[in-house]
Amino acid sequence: MFKTAEEKSAAREAAAQRVLRKEKLAQEARYRSSPLGRAATALAAGATVLQLILPVDDDGSHAISQIEAIGWQLQSVAFAFDLKLTSYPNGTGQLSSIDSASRPMGLYLFRRG
After folding, report:
1. 73 in helix, strand or coil?
2. Would you say residue 57 has pLDDT above 90?
3. Residue 88, exposed/middle/buried by CB under 10 A (0-12, 13-18, 19+)?
4. pTM for the full model?
5. What's the CA gap between 112 and 102, in Å, rounded?
6. How far is C-alpha 39 from the chain's CA centre?
């Protein structure tokens, strides 16, 4: 019914360990889903080709450098725009306006270095 000070301390420690394990698993999942994590996983699996689609920005450039640093060689690049359209109907259900947004994306093909 009542816990001793040692039991309370052990319960707090166990709870803290669960939180740390959960945070570590979340951090590992974020890494595995990142471009570098996907490249490292493919390299470890013995893949000879890696294809990634990344935004064309400073983060994408940084990711490419990191991927080449672990053993991939950039082979080719193609560019396209990620286009998003949003339409707004008026009160009668007819189209009244369309908003569009786009951002440049790069399709990167790497070969094992």
Report:
1. strand
2. no
3. exposed
4. 0.69
5. 32
6. 12
